[in-house]
Amino acid sequence: MRPRVEEVRIQGLGVIDEAVLELSPGFNVVTGETGAGKTMVVTGLGLLFGGRADPSRIRPGADRATVEGTLVIEPGGRVAQQVEDIGGEVEDGELIISRTVSAEGRSRAWLGGRSVPVGTLTYLADDLVAVHGQMDQQRLLQPARQRAALDRYAGNALVKPLRAYAQAYKRHKQVAALLEELTTRARERAQEADMLRFGLEEIEKVDPKAGEDAELRAEEERLSHADALRTAATSAHTALLGDPMEAAGGPHDVVSLLGEARAAVEAVRDFDAQLAGVADRLAEAGYLISDVATDLAAYAESVEADPARLAAVQERRSVLSGLTRKYGEDTTAVLTWAQQAAARLAELEGDDERIGELTREYDELTARLTELAAQLTKVREAAAERFGRAVTEELTALAMPHARVVVQLSQSEEFGPEGRDEVELRMAAHPAAPPLPLNKGASGGELSRVMLAIEVVFAGADPVPTFVFDEVDAGVGGKAAVEIGRRLARLARTAQVIVVTHLPQVAAFADQHLVVEKASDGSVVRSGVVTLNHEGRVRELSRMLAGLEDSELGRAHAEELLGLAAADR
């Protein structure tokens, strides 16, 4: 589905109090008497797509001008994705764009219900509309646009070499960046290598083991409190089994007391199963206490104060602490740093060899890019020659028989993403004139016709869905005006076209005819927009032809023009 502008609402802009434009997907024409506000329609469209806000355009007495447009776009397409990326909404394939300009000059914009900077509308407009007015012929005057349009005009002949060039260019930039880093940061990289080497040597000298610092911390605690630990174990052992220096089975040790309790219960266990269970648990407790007492005795024997070992442990911990302050929170982290540092050092030490390899690859890629860029230039030159001839032929039919359009290709010193070609459209107004850039080689009216010729030639190759032309027919009439109408109709086969015109020959070719009507009560002038049916078109064309809506001759000529246009479609 091709995007298009479906409806535009304008309030408080110039002489327009309030107007609604319902637009067809094809050729839309806007006519009206001088001063009725036809140009305000183009101004409104310009505002809708990010054009400069001029507070002097606001209707006298109004505090602001408002333009709101409803666009039909492809759900999930490029434009819809751009809108969703900024938080806007597209409902059922319809996008609402709104723009207000206050009398103080403040401008606000909304896209899909979301407030956005006006620049966002300008960015979006690149994929939606091309405005060709007397004062704003921006789009195809941009060099990047001219090259992109020429590339699309060149077609399939350019696709394969451009793809190959793009791949080589991407790698060429990567290699250049790597070489830049390796050569310009040699000193920093050498300093980094020295730091890594020092750290690795320091760690290697200490030779830490994973988890060693935790183990030494526990051992230091044990050695530092050896006497207290041994005393505690001995005291606990005595409490459980009694002092071996005293009579065995003293009345105060745990084992003896448990034995007395068990003996008391065992004597009567046969009389009650519940009490028998208690006797069994007392027996288990006795065995458990005996085992614990044995362990305590063994522990007390093993704990010895060892000042020499304690000093060695403390010294080792101090050395490891020096490493963990620099390289990690513990010895495991220190070893991880050492592993990563060794890998990085190997990379840094291989720089010289890598620089040599990258330099060779860079030279090979440069040669390859030079070859591919030459292929692109050859294809573009052929396309430029065809394009120049086609546009010049169109200009001849548009009452500019002596004008000539050429595409000038020049070579940049540097490789770019699309090659080394710089493309510029130029026009010579007559055979003796040198070709000049479009904005210097043509007047405002001529430039509109040049743009029309270019768009007709580019139709299908430069897929902008909506074209707006203001006074494209300035300074022409008769047969040339018919040819302008015919070409606009041809352009409308592949895009939506909106044209402001004063020529009936152009208006007759439209699919939808809108007229800007002016009303006055003697003090206030108001304008609105009306969509004409067939009878209304005949009256409006008659007015444009003869100055009288009901002139029989004018009406007959109007019907003739409409018939000619219908037959030409």
From TrEMBL:
Belongs to the RecN family. Keywords: ATP-binding, Coiled coil, DNA damage, DNA repair, Nucleotide-binding. It comes from Nonomuraea aridisoli. GO terms for biological process: DNA recombination; DNA repair; SOS response. This is DNA repair protein RecN. GO terms for molecular function: ATP binding. Gene3D superfamilies: P-loop containing nucleotide triphosphate hydrolases (3.40.50.300). GO terms for cellular component: bacterial nucleoid. The keyword ATP-binding applies. May be involved in recombinational repair of damaged DNA. It holds the Pfam family SMC_N. Residues 6-521 form the RecF/RecN/SMC N-terminal domain. Residues 348-382 form a coiled coil. It comes from the Bacteria.
